[in-house]
């Protein structure tokens, strides 16, 4: 069991409606930015009123306990009464229990928007309110020239690992395993997370543009949303490239819908999510066949699973019960996890872990940290980019390399200054 740093501040929280139409991301200052934005709505924040770091197998339960204590002692005035108003913690959790720290950040200032309504939340630990400016900030600087990528493992090594995994799947050891690879990029100037967020939100409006403690990305996959007794999870598994310029998207989407390999991979992911939610929800709706989600760089098989909560389980606990899904780990979970630890040779950190926000009422949204990169704290012009692929019996190592490269395009586009 790993320890954690326990900080339980007494927060003063005030949420109230405001008349503000500027884009949420344009309000972020250059420091301490946090974000969870999709199609112009969501939450952004800055400053730190409180922070909690935790690691180990109990990271989710310890984080839940800390947040419950913080909310229990907070003095709250909330005239908005929406999911995401009042006390809110932005969170990013490590994929594995060891190594890697998970973090919760409670900003000093939060701006939220839903259904065209905007609100401001101010959080402090004293009677003094933080200085607040809601004027759009200056355009963030571009990072300049991006150096040649340096892979944590060379393509040939990763391809050999995929080949090994396929052989073990064919031998009956397991049904599916997700293998990730990382790439380290160096930029001419320091990386401003706002530049990455703006680029990602512009290119992938269907995704949730997130930023928590240096982890920046745009995930298409919603691990769980809890809004009152409504619970939703979006499952993505099975991928082909997008090719709008050549007009081939339709044909590629049709091939994806009929691909035995991709349908098998997707089925494992949907089954694992439905099974986890069934312990907390009733009236589960699980579509029989997936749809196709088209993004700028790839297309995914997608299924939205929804249900009604039968208890008071908060969003973070739901995320913990779902993590890791077959979409980022494999099937059966325990065997896939063991294989990842054995052959992947990669510290995923917070990649493929839950990322999002939660409020004092148990509502919240958590995505899976995909299509993302982690800025190195000590070297702010270096960033680790990640991509993962689901490996099943019908996988082809060469095709998996191509898929990983397609997934990396999102962050490579975000890094560019074009």
Write out key terms for the chains shown:
418 residues; alpha+beta; Anthranilate synthase; 13-stranded mixed sheet; eleven-stranded antiparallel sheet; 8 helices; globular; disordered N terminus
How would you describe this structure to a colleague?
The protein has a single domain, classed as Anthranilate synthase (4-Layer Sandwich). Residues 1-5 have low confidence and may be disordered. The strands form two sheets. Strands 2, 3, 4, 6, 9, 10, 11, 12, 13, 14, 20, 23 and 24 form a 13-stranded mixed beta sheet that branches. 26% of the residues lie in helices and 35% in strands. The termini are far apart. Helix 2 (155-170) packs across helix 8 (397-415) and helix 3 packs across helix 8 (397-415). Strand 21 and strand 22 (364-368) form a beta hairpin. It has helices spanning 59-73, 155-170, 193-203, 249-258, 260-277, 315-322, 333-344, 397-415, and strands at residues 4-5, 12-18, 34-38, 41-46, 50-54, 75-78, 88-92, 102-106, 109-114, 117-124, 150-151, 176-186, 208-212, 215-219, 222-227, 230-241, 281-285, 291-294, 298-309, 330-331, 354-359, 364-368, 372-376, 379-391. The protein is α+β, with helices and mostly antiparallel strands.
């Amino acid at each position: 069991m790993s320890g954690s740093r326990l900080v339980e501040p007494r927060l003063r929280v005030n949420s109230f409606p405001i008349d503000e139409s500027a884009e949420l991301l344009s309000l972020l200052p250059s420091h301490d930015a946090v974000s969870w934005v999709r199609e112009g709505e969501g939450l952004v924040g800055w400053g730190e009123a409180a922070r909690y770091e935790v690691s180990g197998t109990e990271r989710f339960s310890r984080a839940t306990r800390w947040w419950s204590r913080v909310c229990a002692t907070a003095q709250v005035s909330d005239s908005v009464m929406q999911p995401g108003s009042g006390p809110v913690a932005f969170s990013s959790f490590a994929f594995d229990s060891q190594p890697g720290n998970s973090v919760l950040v409670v900003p000093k200032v939060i701006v939220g928007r839903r259904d065209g309504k905007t609100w401001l939340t101010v959080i402090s630990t004293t009677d003094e309110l933080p200085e607040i400016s809601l004027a759009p900030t200056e355009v963030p600087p571009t990072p300049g020239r991006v150096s040649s990528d340096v892979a944590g493992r060379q393509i040939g090594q990763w391809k050999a690992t995929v080949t090994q995994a396929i052989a073990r799947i064919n031998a009956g050891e397991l049904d599916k395993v997700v293998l990730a690879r990382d790439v380290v990029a160096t930029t001419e100037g320091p990386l401003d997370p706002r530049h990455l967020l703006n680029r990602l939100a512009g290119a992938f409006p269907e995704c949730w543009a997130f930023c928590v403690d240096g982890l920046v990305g745009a995930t298409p996959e919603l691990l769980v949303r809890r809004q009152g007794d409504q619970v939703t999870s979006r499952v993505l598994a099975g991928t082909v490239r997008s090719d709008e310029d050549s007009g081939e998207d339709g044909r590629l989407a049709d091939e994806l819908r009929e691909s035995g390999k991709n349908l098998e991979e997707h089925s494992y992911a949907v089954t694992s999510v439905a099974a986890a939610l069934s312990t907390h929800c009733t009236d589960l709706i699980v579509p029989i066949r997936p749809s196709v989600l088209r993004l700028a760089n790839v297309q995914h098989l997608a299924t939205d699973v929804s249900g009604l909560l039968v208890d008071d389980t908060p969003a973070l606990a739901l995320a913990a019960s779902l993590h890791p899904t077959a979409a980022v780990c494999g099937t059966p979970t325990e065997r896939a996890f063991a294989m990842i630890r054995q052959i992947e040779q990669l510290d995923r950190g917070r990649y493929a872990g839950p990322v999002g926000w939660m409020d004092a009422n148990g509502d919240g949204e958590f995505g899976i940290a995909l299509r993302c990169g982690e800025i190195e704290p000590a070297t702010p012009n270096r960033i680790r980019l990640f991509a993962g692929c689901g490996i099943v019996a019908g996988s082809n190592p060469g095709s998996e390399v191509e898929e990983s490269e397609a997934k990396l395009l999102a962050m490579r586009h975000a890094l560019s200054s074009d």
